[in-house]
UniProtKB/TrEMBL annotation, chain A:
This is Phosphate ABC transporter ATP-binding protein, PhoT family. NCBIfam families: 3a0107s01c2 (TIGR00972). Part of the ABC transporter complex PstSACB involved in phosphate import. Responsible for energy coupling to the transport system. GO terms for cellular component: plasma membrane. GO terms for biological process: phosphate ion transmembrane transport. SMART domains: AAA. It is a peripheral membrane protein. Its main location: membrane. GO terms for molecular function: ATP binding; ATP hydrolysis activity; phosphate transmembrane transporter activity.
UniProtKB/TrEMBL annotation, chain B:
It is found in: Cell membrane; Membrane. It holds the Pfam family BPD_transp_1. SUPFAM superfamilies: MetI-like. Keywords: Cell membrane, Membrane, Phosphate transport, Transmembrane, Transmembrane helix, Transport. Signal peptide: none annotated. This is Phosphate transport system permease protein. GO terms for molecular function: phosphate transmembrane transporter activity. The chain crosses the membrane at residues 21-48, 82-105, 126-147, 159-180, 210-228, 278-301. One of its GO terms (cellular component) is plasma membrane. Belongs to the binding-protein-dependent transport system permease family. CysTW subfamily. One of its GO terms (biological process) is phosphate ion transport. The lineage of its organism: Bacteria, Bacillati, Bacillota, Bacilli, Bacillales. Residues 86-298 form the ABC transmembrane type-1 domain. It is a multi-pass membrane protein. It comes from Laceyella tengchongensis.
């Protein structure tokens, strides 16, 4: 079995008084796809965003417990949040390219982390765009505005942009919910490809998608992690009744 | 039964009255709109007419290339070269820009990207109030506070001088730049900022490399608008910078701007339909062309380079 990439222990999260995550325990394998499913408002995004400390940007969030990545508690004081986010990249629900050129979108990350060599940047941009299966579609118009791409292309550009800083872990929050079926398929294929090199945690509302692309699935309900299991097992023979009810569509 | 009939009647009456009002409203509103359009047309018309009278006597080329402005001197010594006044206005505008642009951007970045909501909610209205202070108050603030302070550093400086006026005008237009730029930066969607943070950007990197460029059109438009206000600024520069048309481009000496000349001329006892009288309109028309151009430029910039997020 793969070694553990992320180890979450006793994680509680509060928005002000309201508890949004309750005592979560999860070990996420390296180079695998982990899907997070559950009804709206159950805490999937919140959980995902604890993994690269994006919740730090929200006032009044309190977090207790531990998240270990490479044996370091990412919430300890020594952790450099910018470095953490470089290692743990993120792709968001709606494509959010910068209002810059396609090239500049991808080069942005490496640039802020200190790379200015034009040749190296060119290399990284090409490699990342290839990695996101977008290169052939945009190679002749790298100087064009990214906002002129189609939604599906924009989302793959956002994936390329995340890959450009060479993360180990990629967090994806419903990356295909704003996309048409063909673009969705492309992103799904891409995820399968990427897991050879990256640890991927993906939130999805689409259970077929979770079943298709993930190795393990975590089912959340009202801030609790109800079941965390191999995807095949969870969708065919879940251990918990609530999981069963959810995947058979009886609620949520 | 009779009660019901009464009620019906009552409703009908009310309705017709409201319908009448409704029908009148668009006409009334149109009138309001027309009034301001007509006023503008009237102003421009007067401006053009009186300016034409001026150029009937003074050649246009002499006006825009002449280096001496002595419009209010006795008749044999009069010269109408607008360059000294243009330079005066340019000096004030440049000086104000040097003060207001960096400070304005700085405050906008602070308010939009750093300030906690609580602080922002206090400062933003204060900025707007500041923008509403009568400019004459700024004028007296200049001569009683800024000028004496500056003279501690530059003892040879004239009492009336361009430096003090530039600084005060800069302070005057600062809230406008800060507030409009902040609006532009705030309208950059949150998810773009999140993308930048998600790649490991610091707050400063997000501000300078993502939000600022994304809001650039709005920010530049705010500069142009604010500077066009600086060009047109009247009371403060009249009081602080004096009334000595000068080609020297010195900030330590007294100068005169286009606006200050117009104040000086219209408060003096020049006779109606004399050449000095017409010269007010010629200067006014020049000012109008400049500020109009700047306003159109601001509009063009914010439209042409507007970001689609
Ligand atoms: N910034 C916030 N402040 C306060 N409460 C929040 C905030 N963000 C989320 N919550 C609350 O925390 C709970 C979990 O929200 P979260 O966004 O993680 O749900 P989710 O599972 O991602 O839902 P969805 O499927 O709709 O995206 C919800 O009850 C939500 O209202
Ligand atoms: Mg969510």
């Amino acid at each position: 079995m793969n070694p553990t990439a992320i180890s979450v222990k006793n994680l509680d999260l509060y928005y002000g008084e309201k508890q949004a995550l309750k005592n979560i325990h999860v070990d996420i394998d390296e180079r695998s796809v982990t899907a997070l499913i559950g009804p709206s408002g159950c805490g999937k995004s919140t959980f995902l965003r604890t993994l690269n400390r994006m919740n730090d940007l929200i006032p009044n969030v309190r977090i207790e417990g531990q998240i270990l990545i490479k044996d370091t508690d990412i919430y300890s004081d020594e952790v450099d949040v910018e470095m953490l986010r470089k290692r743990v990249g993120m792709v968001f629900q709606a494509p959010n390219p910068f209002p810059k050129s396609i090239y500049e979108n991808v080069a942005y990350g490496p640039r802020i982390h200190g790379l200015n060599d034009k040749k190296k940047l060119d290399e990284i941009v090409e490699r990342s765009l290839r990695g996101a299966a977008l290169w052939d579609e945009v190679k002749d118009r790298l100087k064009d505005r990214a906002t002129g791409l189609s939604g599906g292309q924009q989302q793959r550009l956002c994936i390329a942009r995340a890959l450009a800083v060479e993360p180990d872990i990629l967090l994806m929050d419903e990356p295909t919910s704003a996309l048409d079926p063909i673009s969705t398929l492309k992103v799904e294929e891409l995820v399968q490809e990427l897991k050879k090199n990256y640890t991927i945690v993906i939130v999805t509302h689409n259970m077929q998608q979770a079943a298709r692309i993930s190795d393990k699935t975590a089912f959340f309900l009202n801030g609790d992690l109800i079941e965390y299991n191999d995807t095949d097992k969870l969708f065919s023979n879940p251990d918990h009744q609530q999981t069963e009810e959810y995947i058979t569509g009886r609620f949520g | 039964m009779s009660q019901l009939a009464e009620k019906k009647n009552f409703f009908r009456k009310e309705k017709t009255w409201r319908e009448k009002m409704e029908a009148l409203i668009p006409g009334f509103l149109l009138l309001c709109g027309l009034l301001s359009v007509l006023t503008t047309v009237g102003i421009v018309f007067t401006l053009i007419k009186e300016t034409a009278s001026f150029f009937a006597e003074v050649p246009f080329v002499d006006f825009i290339t002449g280096t001496k402005w002595t419009a209010l001197f006795s008749e044999d010594q009069r010269e109408f070269g607008i360059l000294p006044l243009l330079i005066g206005s340019l000096q004030i505008t440049l000086g104000a820009a040097v003060v207001a642009v960096p400070l304005g951007i700085g405050s906008a970045i602070y308010l939009s990207e750093y300030a906690p909501e609580r602080i922002r909610r206090v400062i933003k209205p204060v900025l707007e109030v500041l923008a509403g202070i009568p400019t004459i108050v700024f004028g007296y603030f200049g001569v009683t506070f800024v000028t004496p302070l500056l003279r501690d550093f530059f003892p040879d400086m004239d009492f009336f001088n361009a430096l003090s006026a530039s600084i005060v005008v800069g302070i005057m237009i600062l809230p406008m730049i800060a507030s409009l730029s902040e609006d532009a930066m705030r309208s950059v969607p949150r998810n773009i900022r999140e993308a930048a943070y998600g790649l490991g950007s610091t707050r400063l990197e997000v501000s300078l490399k993502v939000v600022l460029p994304a809001a650039l059109s709005g920010i530049v438009a705010s500069f142009v608008l604010a500077l066009s206000r600086a060009v047109g600024e009247t009371m403060a520069v009249t009081i602080i910078a004096g009334s000595t048309p000068s080609m020297s481009f010195s900030y330590l000496e007294s100068i005169q701007t286009m606006t200050a000349f117009m104040v000086q001329a219209s408060t003096g006892d020049i006779s109606y339909h004399s050449l000095p009288y017409y010269s007010i309109y010629a200067v006014g028309a020049t000012l109008f062309v400049i500020t109009l151009t700047m306003n159109l430029l601001a509009l063009y910039i914010s439209r042409r380079y507007k970001e689609e997020y």
